[in-house]
Amino acid sequence: MTTEVRVPTLGESVTEATVATWFKKPGDTVSVDEMLCELETDKVTVEVPSPVAGKLADIVAQEGETVGVDALLANIAEAGEAGPETPEERPSEKAEKAAEAPKSGGKSVDVMVPTLGESVSEATVSTWFKKVGDSVAQDEMLCELETDKVSVEVPSPAAGVLSEIVAPEGTTVDASAKLAVIGDSAGAAASSEEAPAKEETASKGGKDVEDAPSAKKAMAEAGISRDQVSGSGRDGRVMKEDVAKAVAAAASAPAPAATAPAPRAPVSADDASREERVKMTRLRQTIARRLKDAQNAAAILTTYNEVDMTETMALRKEYKELFEKKHGVKLGFMSFFTKACCHALKEVPEVNAEIDGTDIVYKNFVHMGIAAGTPQGLVVPVIRDADQMSFAEIEKAIGEKGKRARDGKLSMAEMQGGTFTISNGGVYGSLMSSPILNPPQSGILGMHKIQDRPMVVNGEIKIRPMMYLALSYDHRIVDGKGAVTFLVRVKEALEDPRRLLMDL
Predict the structure, then answer these.
(1) Model-level pTM?
(2) Which residue has the higher pLDDT, 408 or 498?
(3) Which of 270, 479, 496, 503 does the annotation list as catalytic?
(4) Which listed residue (42, 110, 475, 496) is catalytic?
(5) Residue 495 lies in a domain
(6) Does residue 448 have an active-site annotation?
(7) Does residue 479 have an active-site annotation?
(8) How far is CA 272 from CA 47, 89, 132, 256, in A?
């Protein structure tokens, strides 16, 4: 007798979900209420427990599949029926399967592309950390995928042997593609039979030896191919120092003119030898495309103002130690700017709106995007409902998301749904710039460097810490009056932070 595992009620107005992760595999023993899998909806993550004790007979809905409410996810064989699959009998069963299908090495599990996120339909396989024949543990990292927004790590769904790589490095795969096949331990024998051939291939410069990730990065940065580097690691594995030696050797030898890429304009042989050509990452390609699309689609205009930061700096200096002691986070300027923008967006809601066809969609909430520069490129994590948050909550959210952005750990959901963006070029020393819109948003505020300048205050020249502000906006729905009013309200709030407390 088997028991069906079905999609639970997902909540009001939620009709479907995506199978995000299976924590069990067919054949695993499960107890009542033990976690089987996790579903992801557009609002929440739902955990699915086992309704009975027994053994997971089969998985009907694989990871990445979209399922409706009450859809069948899996079947549980109750404990009494689990006998035929006892550990003592499994070796013979696996041996039979291995004899019938020696290529699969027995029972196998497909490694599929994980859920990539809303609006992301494909990814590129950037790095395999394992090679065919390697033993892997469950949840051990197999490879890394690169989408146009984030890098996605792919863990092994089961313990066993990597029997096949379906999508090698550089392959572009869709959201439902198969990446590899994991065979069980019985498949190790079959893999070992193929080992001599693979070793021979590796000795000829094949791709079966996994080079160090740091070496791959160094080769990409140096613009040299794998066959130009001699590996000193185990089985000819290329290490980072091997790349450095190859680059040094190439620099000391004259570069043949024939190996230089065809120039777009006349280039001397000496100049060609000093050029470097590196393929754009998918993230950088997407940044370039989206920025150009923003220029083509929106009527972007920028208005400027300046703000005297004296009062904000004084308030921050007065309370920063007490603030950090109580809340465990430093009081920065970003929370003041976030609060000031949320305040101004209430008065000028069109800056917080977007165009959808011939409609204008006004947002009665503020999901604040905070642009952050990372080694991989510019990303914009989103702080949801920032207008409902305190200074401490905003600072904690900015700190946490900023760290995740730098570590490349941001999820797709964390970078979607923003209604307005703040970009702080001042941290890099920018004194003035015109930020570009983050579609489909209609406004973005550019912050800049705080610099002491002589200002006339009450008829006297005073030295004041001044900052230029820039608001870029979509002139299709935001008029000049609205844009200027928004920027003036931000200026007023920062020059007299008490206005924020009294909602003035």
Answers:
(1) 0.50
(2) 498
(3) 479
(4) 475
(5) yes
(6) no
(7) yes
(8) 57, 65, 39, 10
